[in-house]
Design brief:
Length: 360
Amino acid sequence: MNIHYWKSDNGNFGDDLNGWIWEENTQNKTIWRDNDNITFVGVGTVLDKAIPKETFKIVLGSGVGYALPPSDMNDPKHWKIFGVRGPLTANLLNLQPNLSMTDPAILVANMEKFRSTKKEGTIFIPHWKSIGYGHWPSVCKELGIEYVDPRGDAEEIIMRIGNASLVLAESMHSAIIADALRTPWIAIATSPEIVPFKWADWSLSLGMPYKPVCLAPSSVGEYIRNRISQFSYHCAIFQRGLFSINSPICHLEFSSPEEITNIYKNNMRRANQKWRTSITSILEAIIKRSLRKKDIHSDVKIKGRLYKQSVSQLKEVLEMPSMLSDETKHRGKLEQVVLALRQIEHDYENGTLIPKETRT
């Protein structure tokens, strides 16, 4: 089978783990090396039209979030769905409730190399798109928090998460991995472009709401980026007052499936307005060029005020209650993913994975 996942030019550990997690959790490694006509769709928010049309698709734990899903996913001649990431994706695709699984990155819980009995230190893992705008590495350093770049080696990042006592997670997969390895975590957001549908899809699969703590910008560049993000089709989830220079720390909660699905549908309507993607991409590129030249950070007075505010807010976050899914619920979802993966392996080896009418 050919594994389909999103690949960043700079790397993103939550997607990159697809490169090894499946082979390490199956006995027959050759099923991932055969260059056949089967596309395997696993970890990631990748149920969209980028999936190859001409192949037979196997879905195990993927989710919807950034785009509309393929229109033919209910066609058994082209798709076989063993499970999706959570109840929101299952409902959107009109699937049976038992196909609401969880994110399959939970499989790291069964991998000996990632288990740790010694947990110490707090780590901060941003979303990859947030990198380069703010002063969060310096803010973290001042508070004794380790800033972890999500574009690094996936195995090293996962080991660091497993060894931590707390994860401040803007990257969704940093929370997913933390929960899998039983490391407490707190969801944070430094950008209005964070997508609540994918977050809540996963968290609700484990009986938890998505409760991000929204932080004010740590730099002028980050503030400008946040203002530009108002044009993005993903920014509709946040009130316009959030993420401004004087924003107080803010707590949001997404627990209503109807509300979250309506937000997603509204975002998809905005996505049809192609100018949104074009203008935000162009303006973000201009900001990053300016940041490299230090132009945007030239006002030392504003920079100092924002920096101090960020230190104060992040310090406040450290005192907040953390999240961790129920142990029984966690074990049950892990078992569901493991059994589905075993079934895929069994069906592949016995030649029954693809329907006869599709093979002929």
